[in-house]
Each structure stands twice: as C-alpha cells, then as structure tokens.
Write a structure and sequence with these properties.
Elements: H1 4-11, H2 26-29, H3 32-36, H4 44-55, H5 58-63, H6 73-90, E1 93-95, H7 96-102, H8 113-126, E2 130-135, E3 140-146, H9 162-222
Antiparallel strand pairs: 1-3, 2-3
Length: 231
C-alpha cells in the first residue's frame, strides 16, 4: 500500500485534503517537508488548512475564514463530513438541526438543507467515515460507528488538549486495576469456599461412616445368641 506522504506528494501537497479516503492527516503533518510550509508565508495558509482538516471543524473555519485559502465545493463537503465525524464521536444520536447549525447549512437557499445534509451523510457512509441510520421522520442520524480523527496537541484557546485525554485514560486504567483486584479477591474467595465445602463434605462422609459403623456394631451385639448354659 502506498505510504500516505508519498500518495499526497504525488497528488500535490495542496490537494491532500481532497482525497476522499484520507480522514487522518497526522502522518502527513509530521513530515519535515509539510512542517516547513508553516514557515513560508505563501504556503502557510495551506498548512493551516491541512491542520484544519486534521483536527478542526466547519465552525473553526467559519470563525476565521480569511486565514485559509478559499474552499472548493469538494473541500467544503469534506470538511463538513469531518465535522460530522467529530459530532458522531461525541453523541450517538444527532439531530438534523444540530448538524445543520454545526455545518453552516442554515443559510443555504439554493437547495433543501435537509437534502444537502443527507447527501453529505450518505457519501460519508460510503467513504466509511461513519456508519448509521438516517431517520427522516424524526430528523435524526443514529450513529453505529465512527472513524477516528487526529488528536490535537492544543485547543484553539491554547490549552493542552492531551491532558484531559491522558486524565481519562489514567482514570480508566485505575478502574481496570480496581476491577481486576476485585475479580482476584472474588476468585480467591470462591477457591476458599470450594476448599471449605470439600472439607465439610469429607467431614460429613466420615461422620456418616462412623455412624453406620456404630449402628452395625450395636445391631451385631443385640443379635448375639443367649448363653443357655447359665439357665
């Protein structure tokens, strides 16, 4: 399989975000040639655009569109689909109204916003960006699964974006350790119960054997013939 940076370089660095099969751009952003684009003013907007496609959303673009190159219709559709990926990762039921707002479709007048939204979702499903079911009556998209996106190192306000993820993973690890400890204690308790049960069964068996022996001995002494010579 062709490496991602090689594939993108073969299509042109500025066109990497147009390739439908790409939804994760971290490997591309990590290459020295791409990182160098950030230092050159003519190429910097395209580097910012690639960063936007890696971790951003349509709302990030709409908040400051002048720092990016103008989006082609294909690029706009791709960014909106990546935004749906981010929404689907946070919630499993997405209302049409919430998605239309997040995708900047409220002001669309040349066609039905619902049709545009559904076409974006259907195309995203074919690209394996997410999977789910459209409910036109309820105006909802029920998400079954969603692909991963790049994790930003910092939030848009400059805070460490990895710290909450690390804290969540640490908490999960602690919960897993606690669950394993509880499971080990339960297994040990079951082994003790089993050992006590086996010991009790053996004790009951021994007591039964002794009782039978006593009854047999008592019956034997009762059945002995009388000594008539003493009569």
């Amino acid at each position: 399989m062709e490496a991602l940076p090689e594939r993108c370089s073969s299509t042109g660095r500025r066109d990497a975000h147009r390739i439908k099969v790409i939804s994760v751009f971290g490997e591309l952003l990590a290459t020295p040639a791409i990182r160098a684009l950030a230092e050159h003013d003519p190429s910097a907007p395209y580097y910012r655009l690639l960063c936007l496609f890696a971790t951003g959303t349509w709302q990030d673009y709409a908040a400051n569109p002048n720092i990016y190159p103008a989006l082609t219709p294909q690029q706009a559709a791709k960014l909106r689909q990546l935004t749906i990926v981010s929404l689907a990762d946070a919630r499993r039921v997405l209302s049409y109204s919430d998605m239309e707002s997040a995708l900047g479709l409220e002001a669309t007048t040349d066609a039905s916003t619902t049709r545009i939204l559904e076409d974006l979702i259907i195309d995203g499903i074919y690209q394996s960006l997410f999977a789910g079911r459209l409910d036109g009556m309820a105006q909802e998209f029920h998400v079954d699964s969603v692909t991963a996106r790049d994790v930003p190192h910092t939030t848009h306000d400059g805070h460490d974006a990895l710290a909450p993820l690390l804290a969540e993973l640490t908490a999960w690890s602690q919960r897993a350790d606690d669950a394993l400890h509880t499971l080990d204690e339960r297994i040990a308790s079951l082994h003790d119960d089993r050992a006590r049960s086996a010991h009790q069964k053996q004790s009951d068996h021994d007591a039964l054997v002794h009782a039978v022996a006593d009854v047999y001995a008592s019956a034997k002494s009762t059945d002995e013939p009388m000594d008539l010579s003493r009569a």
